[in-house]
Amino acid sequence: MASTKKKTCSEKENGQNNPSLADDDMNMEQDVMDASDSMSSSSDEEEDEMDTQEKINVEFEARNPEEMDFHGIRQLLLQLFLKSNVHISGLTNWILSLNVGSVIKQYFEEDGEEEEEEDDIDYNQVYGVISCLNISNTKEKVFADQVKKHLLEKLSNEQQAVARLRSILDDPANNIGFIVNERFVNIPPQIAEPSFSSLRQEMQTANEKGDDYNCSHFVLIAKKFRMKVSGKSGKKRRSKKPLDPEIYSNAEEESGIAGS
């Protein structure tokens, strides 16, 4: 992934004080010169800043979740379960206890050489998380029930959809997996396909070890956005022109990679 990093070059101020001048005209002339120098310096700084922009490649990798990832995963779940009664910390611990799923972190070469400008980088920053929670047959029934309630509340304005989802969730014959697929908005969607491929393989391995991932249904929360349109004075939109199409936060959820 390519990102842009700016390095601002600022000029050092001259530490010498100008001698005081008795003549007012000379003082005025000096002020004009100082103002001119200041404008020139500001212009030079802007040019230097533009010239020193550079593109760097950032690589990401998937790793098995660890205890140190708790706060990073929890933060991502907070943006997934907005305004909900889901116990986020409990859900985070549930994900950490599983043998499936991964977290997305920045890849760094272990060569022992670090640039000075990378001193403030958090090498354990979690940029994404993917996992699957069995919300039908699980010991974590409290958290599973909270997730189910949250899903139904999200469809509260669509009665037919609520009825259909409720019939699936309440049927004891169904084995339902809730897919957690959340990441920072600027992480490229190309990372999704290998992440889901790895998740499927881990679920198969978990099944062979006795875990229950023979799911009959999978559900996930797909977030969508739409640009707001307003008048020149900030008034509500009155035009009959169609709104801009909805944009999926995770492109793979629109294309179908997540469900394949």
**End-to-end distance, in Å?**
25 Å
Helical fraction: 25-40%
Round the mean pLDDT to the nearest integer and report it.
Answer: 76
Q: Main sheet?
A: 5 strands, mixed
Structural class based on helices, strands and sheet pairing: alpha+beta
Task: Using the CA coordinates, give the radius of gyration.
Answer: 27 Å
What are the low-pLDDT stretches, counting only 5+ consecutive residues below 50?
1-33
Shape: globular
Reading the helices and strands in chain order gives EHEEHHEEHHEHEEEH
Largest beta sheet: strand ordering: 3-4-5-6-7
Number of helices: 7
How much strand? 15-25%
Strand segment count: 9
Textual characterization of the structure:
There is one protein chain. The protein has 260 residues and is of the alpha+beta class. 37% of the residues lie in helices and 15% in strands. A five-stranded mixed beta sheet has the order 3-4-5-6-7, sandwiched between helices. A two-stranded antiparallel ribbon has the order 1-2. Helix 6 links the parallel strand 6 and strand 7 (217-220).
Topology of this protein?
Elements (H helix, E strand, L loop, with lengths): L1 E4 L18 H28 L2 E4 L2 E4 L6 H11 L7 H10 L4 E5 L21 E7 L6 H14 L4 H12 L5 E8 L8 H17 L8 E4 L3 E2 L21 E2 L2 H5 L5
Parallel strand pairs: 6-7
Antiparallel strand pairs: 1-2, 3-4, 4-5, 5-6, 8-9
Helix pairs in contact: 2-3
